[in-house]
């Protein structure tokens, strides 16, 4: 199927089936299994990732994530987790055997993936990791706890980042492919959150999990390089989700404002509202232009994607907040839940990497004397 045809089919599905689904499941925390199956089979959402051999997720996949987040941001993050934490790392870094074992199933969605790197304390560097891998006669043994792992409760396989300590050698780091049904893997209870409802989030405990030699991603201890690449792509994907949230909230607010109400006027007939919507539209256009510049910047500036993510989430928060102010008390009449978009934007700001950590990184250049 051609890219333009797939985009049209996806847009149609989002604007019909997903929109209808959200009317009845707006506050649901259930994993959207039926929609997942349509996305992975009928719409083949992950196949574009296979088509580009570079340092970034395929642009067609990023565009799809953005379109979906107009209506269902949580679904976008579920798909992004699978694409960025499952399909892409195996494709980019996996051995031939690992690709043969997992790649096709990940693309088809019959194998779900998550990635474990966050721990109970903030990771300022990989040196802070407290999940350890020990070399054994038959492979590796993992022990530790990952505090928050997206998709973990529905995942078949996890990529787990661990510190490797060997006598007489400096610490090294690696990602290990861990099947969730392995002995010693314990998935915690669902972690409650205010936004991105439907995205599974749990802790994962690894209690002396024995793995074969072939479980090391790529067969090499290159966790630092792999982690930086994966997180860069996750931030790029989250930027697309945040921009989609802003667009979705804006269009929902605009639709609402253009309907004539019982008092005989539309909100859009009020001049002040016209100015407000015009300002929001310009803000989204500026954000779109900034976001669209990433293909020319991502290779030269490794921190560029972090700045994009910071700005896109800021725009998403500002747009959703302003739409809430404009139509807030009245939205109940059309069952338009703009507050959900705002809560989703709040979660996205701190997903993967917090907004303040990015701000601190930007400000470091001005602290040097």
TrEMBL record:
Its EC number is 1.3.99.-. InterPro entries: Acyl-CoA_Oxase/DH_mid-dom (IPR006091), Acyl-CoA_Oxase/DH_mid-dom_sf (IPR046373), AcylCo_DH-like_C (IPR036250), AcylCo_DH/oxidase_C (IPR009075), AcylCoA_DH/ox_N (IPR013786), AcylCoA_DH/ox_N_sf (IPR037069), AcylCoA_DH/oxidase_NM_dom_sf (IPR009100). Residues 226-365 form the Acyl-CoA dehydrogenase/oxidase C-terminal domain. It is an enzyme of class 1 (oxidoreductase). One of its GO terms (molecular function) is acyl-CoA dehydrogenase activity. Residues 11-109 form the Acyl-CoA dehydrogenase/oxidase N-terminal domain. Its cofactor is FAD. Signal peptide: none annotated. Residues 115-209 form the Acyl-CoA oxidase/dehydrogenase middle domain. It comes from the Bacteria. The keyword Transferase does not apply. Keywords: FAD, Flavoprotein, Oxidoreductase. One of its GO terms (cellular component) is plasma membrane. It holds the Pfam family Acyl-CoA_dh_N. SUPFAM superfamilies: Acyl-CoA dehydrogenase C-terminal domain-like, Acyl-CoA dehydrogenase NM domain-like. Belongs to the acyl-CoA dehydrogenase family. This is Acyl-CoA dehydrogenase. It comes from Streptococcus cristatus. The gene is acdA.
């Amino acid at each position: 199927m051609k890219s333009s045809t797939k985009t049209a089919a996806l847009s149609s599905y989002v604007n019909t089936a997903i929109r209808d689904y959200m009317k009845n499941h707006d506050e649901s925390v259930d994993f959207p299994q039926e929609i997942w199956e349509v996305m992975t089979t009928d719409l083949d959402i992950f196949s574009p990732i296979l088509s580009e051999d570079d340092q970034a997720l395929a642009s067609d996949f990023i565009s799809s994530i953005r379109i979906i987040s107009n209506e269902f941001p949580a679904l976008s993050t579920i798909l992004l987790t699978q694409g960025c934490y499952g399909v892409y790392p195996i494709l980019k870094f996996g051995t031939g055997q690992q690709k043969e074992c997992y790649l096709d199933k990940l693309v088809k969605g019959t194998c779900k993936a998550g990635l474990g790197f966050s721990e109970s304390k903030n990771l300022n560097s990989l040196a802070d990791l407290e999940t350890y891998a020990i070399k054994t006669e038959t492979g590796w043994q993992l022990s530790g706890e990952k505090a928050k792992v997206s998709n973990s409760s529905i995942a078949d396989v996890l990529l787990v980042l661990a510190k490797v300590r060997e006598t007489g050698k400096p610490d090294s780091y690696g990602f290990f492919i861990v099947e969730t049904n392995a002995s010693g893997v314990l998935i915690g209870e669902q972690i409650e959150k205010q936004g991105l409802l439907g995205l599974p989030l749990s802790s994962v405990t690894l209690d002396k999990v024995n793995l074969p030699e072939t479980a090391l991603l790529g067969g090499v201890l290159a966790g630092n390089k792999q982690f930086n690449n994966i997180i860069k792509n996750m931030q790029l994907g989250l930027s697309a989700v945040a921009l989609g949230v802003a667009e979705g909230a804006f269009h929902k607010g605009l639709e609402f404002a253009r309907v004539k109400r019982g008092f005989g006027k539309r909100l859009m007939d009020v001049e002040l509202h016209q100015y407000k919507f015009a300002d929001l539209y310009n803000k989204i256009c500026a954000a779109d232009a900034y976001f669209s510049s990433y293909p020319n910047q991502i290779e030269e500036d490794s921190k560029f994607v972090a700045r994009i993510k910071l700005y896109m989430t800021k725009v998403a928060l500002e747009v959703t907040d302003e739409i809430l102010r404009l139509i807030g008390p009245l939205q109940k009449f059309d069952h338009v839940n703009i507050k959900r978009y705002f809560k989703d934007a709040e979660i996205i700001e701190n997903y993967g990497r917090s907004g303040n950590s990015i701000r601190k990184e930007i400000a470091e250049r001005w602290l040097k004397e």
